[in-house]
Each structure stands twice: as C-alpha cells, then as structure tokens.
Amino acid sequence: MALFGKRGRIGVIELFGMIGPTVQSSVYYQLLDRLERSSRVGVVLLDIDSPGGAVAASESLFAKVDRIRQKKPVVAFVRGSGTSGAYMAASAATRIVALPSAIVGSIGVISLRPVAAELLERVGINISVSKSAPLKDMGAFYRQPTEEEEQRLQAIIDQLYEAFVQRVARTRNLEVERVRSLATGEVFTGVRGKELGLVDELGDFDDALDLAAELGGVPRKMAYVRPPRTMRQRVAGRFAAWAMESLAEEGYGASGQRLWYL
Hints:
The protein is an alpha/beta fold. The protein has a single domain, classed as 2-enoyl-CoA Hydratase, Chain A, domain 1 (Alpha-Beta Complex). It is built from 10 helices and 11 strands. It has helices at 25-37, 55-69, 85-91, 117-122, 147-171, 176-182, 190-196, 205-216, 231-236, 238-252; strands at residues 9-16, 41-50, 53-54, 74-83, 95-98, 103-105, 110-111, 187-189, 201-202, 222-224, 259-261. The strands form 2 sheets. Strands 1, 2, 4, 5, 6, 8, 9 and 10 form an 8-stranded mixed beta sheet that branches. The longest helix has 25 residues, at 147-171. The protein starts with 8 loop residues before the first strand and ends with a strand.
C-alpha cells in the first residue's frame, strides 16, 4: 500500500527531544530520506521542539535537510525550543516559522565531561595508565586536563563553532559577522528571533502548515512519518518511555560523547 496519496502531501516529521539520545540521527536520516525520495511528497514540514544535542548527530540532520531543500521546499516550525543543534537543522529549511514564545538561537558549542579525580582519591582508587602518546587519554575522567589538552580541546570547539556560524550565515542568507555577533550562546524568543533574521514568520502549527502547502503547491493534507516504536515504548507506555529516555540522555555524556550543540 502506498504511503502517500496520489495528489501529493505535506510530509511531517517531528524532532522532539535531544538530538543523539532521543532523536537518533541514523533513524531520522532514513525518515528524511524517505520524504526526499517520495514523489508524492511536495514539501516537508519539520515540527521542532528540541534543545539541540550531539555535534555529529546535529550536523547529520542539518546536511540532510539542506539536501532536501535543493529538491523540494522545507518548512521548519519551532513550537517550543529550537536551539543550538536543533536550530542548525532548522536553519537549513526554506522558511522558519516559530511561535512568538518559542526559544531559538543558542548558536555555539559546549564540551562536558566529569572529572572524578578527587572522588577516586577519597575512596582509595588509583588508575594505572599505559599509553602510546601523551594525548592518548585526553579527556579522561580520572584526572584534571593539562594546559595543552585544554588548548587542543578549545581549538576543536573553535573550529566547530566557526563551521556552525558559516552554516547559519549561508542558509539564512546573513552576513557571517552578523551571525557571529548573535552566536554568543544566547537564546531569543520567536519575536526577537524574527527581528534578528533567525526566524522568517511568527505563527502556530496551522500557519506553518498553510505556508508549507503554499510553497509545495500541494493540498493541505499531512502525512506523518515517525520512527517505529520500540518494544520498550509499546510495553511500558508513553510516560515510562519518556522517563527511560531521560535517563538515557543523562548517561549519554558519560559514555564518551563530550561535544554538544546545546
């Protein structure tokens, strides 16, 4: 059975939650790819409520949305939060619509990692390390970073930050220095975001839907594309699944991921 009707549809995909742990880039890449390739989808509508997330996952979504935009219109609707990595993905859309009270921006990069050196010392645990080079255990939780390691990490952050600024400048058709002046990590309401050029229009989901239908030249009919529900979600129910996903997000950084668009 065909996924979409013959007359064309607005393909809707929801980006709710942290990119990486909840919005898994590999899964959502496949969903976006289906919308890109479908001849029955005339326009894509991204429904966004996300604080951003992991660097690589955010960049993957941005690249895919940017590619879709070359073939068919993409409208990003920010209903709650569309910040950092989520704003990066939204910026690749043809147009951005946001609720006046929505939060956008937070353009920047942050590195997070626990340092448990004092805790380990208190409980009498010593870590023995053999390594092939001085920087092999850079970012280890069992000791404080050296000055050289902090400089190396800052260089990576600066490189990612500059790439973020360049992407937004290109897709939003803004001067690079203009974007850099806004890329302080600060967040803005939808109203202020529109004044600054980070948002195109203020409105609700219906307004975004109307715009998508107009840009795509398709009926105002939606076709939601969602990831398959896991067994955990089917058995535990929605509330329990949300709780378990929140715990997963808390542990995501401890598993080695330390660079975030948050």
